[in-house]
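Review form for a predicted model. The reviewer records the input and the model, then writes brief findings.
Reviewer: anonymous (R2)
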Amino acid sequence: MGTIFNIIILGVIVWFLYQRFVPAKGIKNINATELKVELNNKGDKQFIDVRTPNEYRGNHIKEFRNIPLNDLGKRAQELSKDKEVVVICQSGMRSSHASKALKKLGFKEVTNVKGGMSSWR
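Model under review:
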């Protein structure tokens, strides 16, 4: 009986880690070097920084507008679902969550900046 319970617990842990760390379908991931190319070829892209207003004020990339992760659900209508959305945060974790949320809300093209502002030079 204990062995079956342990297997179930292990299965739940593996599933949780898989859900948390495997990139979501349809979300492109880029690094800071690739972001520089994206910024040079802006085109029809929207750039959002999902950090807190204080973090954003401290240091940000001028093309990015601040929509904190906590406000994203309420403010997603400010973005066009037909244009690519490039998302950044401090380390890449919040932007990953934001990217998944945007996909669920029906945004077609979503790009997450891996490493976030920590990797930006």
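Findings: The longest strand covers residues 45-49.
Further findings: The chain has a mean pLDDT of 90.
Recommendation: see findings above.
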